[in-house]
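I am still getting used to backbone structure tokens and would like to learn alongside you. Label the sequence line and the structure token line clearly, so we can match residues to local backbone shapes. Go ahead whenever you are ready, and we will take it from there:
>
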Amino acid sequence: MVFREVANPNKAHRREGKPLGPRQLQSPTSLRNYKAKTLPYTNGNRASLSQNAFEELSLLGLNLWTDVCTAFISGRAHKVQFILAGDLFQLQPPKNTWCGAPVHKHALKNSDLLYQLAGGTRIFLNRNVRSDTIIYQFAMSLRADGVEFSERLAQAKALFPSTDRVPDTVLVLSHAKRELYNTEINLKKKPEDAIFLERTKRRSKDDCRSQDMWVWKGMIALGQEKPCLKSQLYRVVDWDTNTLTLETVECTQVNGEKPEGKTLEVGRHTATDAIRMMHAVTYCRSQGLTLQGVIVLADTESPHFEIEHLNLGLTRGTHSSLVEIRDC
């Protein structure tokens, strides 16, 4: 039996942004663009694919689901087992539309496609490996039937009250507010030995635009473009006249390797293209991340703030004492 990971939005799909075609889905060599692990040869020939795994399925865009559906309905993948992993209570992909029309947020969860791909088999994993009991139990209560969002939000504000601490990460809805908080907190936290990096004039490939920033040893940054991996956390460890040295601080498996603790160098004058500040992050971008330190959930009074944002924000924290809800 041969196993292949088809897509993981945090590690692959969001980094490459390249959809797979129907023929590629059944090909053992198709996933090199998705950083998939190279399969061993069997008797001199590459083994046939028997399993396809999708991680963080709630973040997969319609372009990939269309290709999966085509391969499944056409019968090209009828001998392949699909393993679909993810939390359908999280956010759907940004700008998720079909022919210009928005896609209902429960469309995938209630779809016949998902049921048929999994063969009607569904398994719930309820082991808490990130946060404490308070966060976990409250997050689980959000999933109960008939939950009133306004009541749960009021309970969350009482359970995770605001303080005057300077946060390590603020979760926001918009990139405009992300840039605002990043600049504000970056200036507050910079030590005397920090160095200034001026953003380049290069246009960002997505809405997460680069910013001027102060960096210092021990500062945590978020990977954006090569040579960094997108959504990988890095720690600044050193610099010289021309380069900035970064160290990975969160385990992300790439090509079968775990690069945690590995270092890489980026050009000092182009570092603002490769990394983003972590003082403020959008809710969507935070999916899949474990955020250390004090976390603040902002924009809770916005009409665009939904119960999925509340669940996502709370579950990024490692302890209830480090999570706050502020109406900012």
Notes: The longest strand covers residues 233-239. The CA atoms of residues 27 and 202 lie 36 Å apart. The chain has ten helices and 18 strands. Residues 3-117 form one domain.
